[in-house]
From TrEMBL:
The active site is at residue 138. It comes from Botryobasidium botryosum (strain FD-172 SS1). Zn(2+) binds at residues 146, 149, 184, 187. This is Deacetylase sirtuin-type domain-containing protein. Residues 1-279 form the Deacetylase sirtuin-type domain. It comes from the Eukaryota. One of its GO terms (molecular function) is metal ion binding. Keywords: Metal-binding, Mitochondrion, NAD, Transferase, Zinc. It is found in: Mitochondrion. Belongs to the sirtuin family. Class I subfamily. One of its GO terms (cellular component) is mitochondrion. InterPro entries: DHS-like_NAD/FAD-binding_dom, NAD-dep_sirtuin_deacylases, Sirtuin, Sirtuin_cat_small_dom_sf, Ssirtuin_cat_dom.
Length: 279
């Protein structure tokens, strides 16, 4: 049976749900001007970007990898949360708003995005992100981790170090000496971006899987569902007897599990699905 695109039927399902998960990807931030991971612009188009997001790339050429992530930090810094971010933040952080559309539900947001816009959306409505049910399973570009002492902290400096200034606009790669790259304030060791690279284990896997296994409704938002384990969560919920609603600009592999399919910009479809209007 083809998935439904009827908003009223979806809202009825939403109202009866008790454990809702949201699994979001790059499409959630597209309207905020964040390029998809595989669509990084400028001089980075000359690289297979997938080869930059592995531990081996950082070990071989930390200068190159830090220039790439400096560019990503600056793009994220310039962006603002869009209506889809705000709608999700409202439901995650304001119980009264969630109760109005799903009276008995809790909602947990699992995001693959590292741009921090979901966190900024929570801050913009006055919520404490540490108290919200949100998992940044692939980390955050504004976190840094020491490669020597493992100290992890948030860092929003622009630039994070003097040698990276202007490299986000450069038309060619610079060769930055390793001693001029970001250093740990605790031990002076080389810092790395606080993101999960291919081949590394995403954050909070046990907690996330527990929430997924209990979910009776999964909202798949702005993701092509090609990167595991997140790509398997819709299947898990469907297998456990739950409902799946997909919000995407284009068709994706999760459509086969979808009870509901809403194609279009998620900054329009998602607020409409929740509230009957755009925020």
């Amino acid at each position: 049976m083809a998935p439904s695109s009827d908003f009223e039927t979806f809202r009825a399902t939403l109202q009866s749900s008790k454990q809702i998960i949201v699994v979001s990807g790059a499409g959630l931030s597209a309207a905020s001007g964040i390029p998809t991971f595989r669509g990084a612009g400028g001089f980075w188009r000359t690289f297979d970007v997938m080869t930059l997001a592995v531990p081996e790339a950082f070990e071989e050429n930390p200068s190159r990898v830090w220039q790439f992530y400096h560019m990503r930090r600056e793009k994220a810094r310039q962006a603002l949360p869009n209506a889809a971010h705000m709608a999700l933040a409202t439901l995650v952080a304001i119980p009264e708003r969630l109760a109005a559309i799903a009276p008995e539900a809790t909602i947990t947001h699992i995001t693959q995005n590292v741009d921090g816009l979901n966190i900024r959306a929570l801050q913009m409505i006055g919520a404490d992100p540490s108290e919200a049910l949100i998992y940044q399973m692939h980390g955050n570009v504004f976190d840094v981790i020491c490669t020597v002492c493992d100290h992890k902290t948030a860092n929003h400096d622009s630039p994070i170090c003097a040698s990276l200034e202007g490299t986000d606009l450069a038309e060619s790669e610079r060769q930055i000496p390793i001693e001029e790259l970001p250093r740990c304030t605790e031990c002076g060791g080389l810092l790395r971006p606080g993101v999960v690279w291919f081949g590394e284990t995403p954050h909070d896997m046990d907690e996330i899987q527990e929430v997924v296994d209990e979910a009776d409704l999964a909202l798949i938002v702005g993701t092509s569902s090609t990167v595991y384990p997140a790509a398997g969560y819709a299947n898990d919920v469907e297998h456990n007897g739950g409902k799946v609603a997909v919000f995407n600009l284009d068709r994706s592999r999760d459509d086969e599990y979808a009870d509901f399919l809403f194609l279009g910009p998620c900054e329009k479809t998602l607020p409409h699905a929740f509230f009957g209007a755009e925020l």
